[in-house]
Amino acid sequence: MKPLIGLCAGTQRYCILLAIGILGLLVGCESNLKEVQKINFSQFAPAGEAEDFNLKYTDSGRITSILESKKMLDYANVEFPYTEFPKGVLVTMYDNKGKRTFIRSNYAITFKGTDIIDLQNQVVISNEFGQQMETDQLYYDQKNEWFFTEKKFKFTDPKGVSYGEGIDFSKDFKLVNSQRINGEIDQNE
């Protein structure tokens, strides 16, 4: 058996062409492999994006709430669609008499089909009557107009301040159910 170098000695041009051909096949296969890998890679990107927006919700011509945010990412194109507000939200809700409730958080997310908004990071909810609640996470059930959390909270109103862990209440603070609570409340009012 002759060594490979011996085979190419008389036909140097053919050996060079053979080496270029083999090199071309190797490079061509690598390129195709990268293309196949790209097919299996799906980029997780929002279907829609909005910046610095102000969205008004109405019912029969009456404004029921206003949503403001620096950034909204809409992931309607994924298996479980959701909308994310990575730079937080400011929501103003109006009752039937025009009284306002204000909600602020540094992050929010809502999953389509659940009617639940998950507010996170320095959540503050307040109203025109001087009541305010602060917590790290708060859920809002849009269908029932009800807030709830299992996290620690601070609740302030003109009668005093209370602290606790776990609370649920109506959007106007008229119905409040709290768990593990302590604080001082002025009973003279």
- Helix and strand element order: HHEEEEEEEEEEEE
**Count of alpha/pi helices:** 2
Q: What is the CA-based Rg, rounded?
A: 31 Å
Strand fraction equals: over 45%
* Shape type: elongated
Given as residue ranges, the uncertain stretches (5+ residues, pLDDT < 50) are none
Strand line-up across the major sheet: 2-3-6-7-5-4
Structure in words:
The structure is a single chain. With 189 residues, the protein is of the alpha+beta class. Helices cover 19% and strands 53% of the residues. It has two helices and twelve strands. The protein has helices spanning 4-9, 12-40; strands at residues 48-59, 62-75, 82-85, 89-94, 100-105, 107-111, 116-127, 132-141, 146-157, 160-170, 176-178, 181-185. A six-stranded antiparallel beta barrel has the order 2-3-6-7-5-4. A hairpin with a 6-residue loop joins strand 2 and strand 3 (82-85). It is elongated, with a radius of gyration of 31 Å.
Strand and helix map with partners:
Elements: H1 4-9, H2 12-40, E1 48-59, E2 62-75, E3 82-85, E4 89-94, E5 100-105, E6 107-111, E7 116-127, E8 132-141, E9 146-157, E10 160-170, E11 176-178, E12 181-185
Antiparallel strand pairs: 1-2, 2-3, 2-4, 3-6, 4-5, 5-7, 6-7, 7-8, 8-9, 9-10, 10-11, 10-12
Descriptive keywords:
2 helices, about 190 residues, single chain, alpha+beta
Short note summarizing the structure:
With 189 residues, the chain is of the alpha+beta class.
